[in-house]
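hey can u check if this looks right to u? its 215 residues, i copy pasted from the old doc so theres a chance i mangled smth
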Amino acid sequence: MNEMALAPRPRAGRPTRAQAEARHAELLDRALDHFLDKGYDQTTIDGIATDVGMTKRTVYARYADKASLFRAAVRRAVERYKLPEKRLQAAVTDDITQTLNNIAMVRLELVTSPQGLKLQRIINTESYRFLDVFQDTYELAGRQTIEFLANLFDRETKAGRLAITDPFLAANVFMSLVISGPARLIIGSKRIPLKDLERRVAFCVGIFLEGTKPR
């Protein structure tokens, strides 16, 4: 008899914390892919579990239902796609016009990347069902840029280069005027050539600065 055949199979053992976290991240990433490619209604826990090589029981041990998995997957994606502070800082120059153009283009580049577009579209599509996800997206991603702009406007006002009495409100207006408009068009499947996008951003930045300059 072959002694090797009688040797007990080594046990895999309990995964380390790092391995467990990596598997959890993989689950959320694969789940996001399913939601982005198929939409919420057509995505199933079965399909996600099979794709990631887990049992449904393992998935349900972490997430009670598809809705909670959707929330977690989208939240992770939003956290990963928000602008790092260093990218916003790198956009700042001695010229406020150039700085605002830079911030707008960096923000639009992120939002309108292939993955960013899919993410924005499913958040918009499912906002009626997951209002909390829509609101979280603002808190996790949009608010960061708004607060950065508000601080910038406050400094520029104190230096006498702008005259803004409510920097936070002005930052929200800037986002709506300069960034949200073209972003909505692109998310809605309207392709805007880079030159036209840069021209539109520059035009809107000019309007914003004209309305906020000292009189």
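Confidence is low (pLDDT under 50) at residues 1-10.
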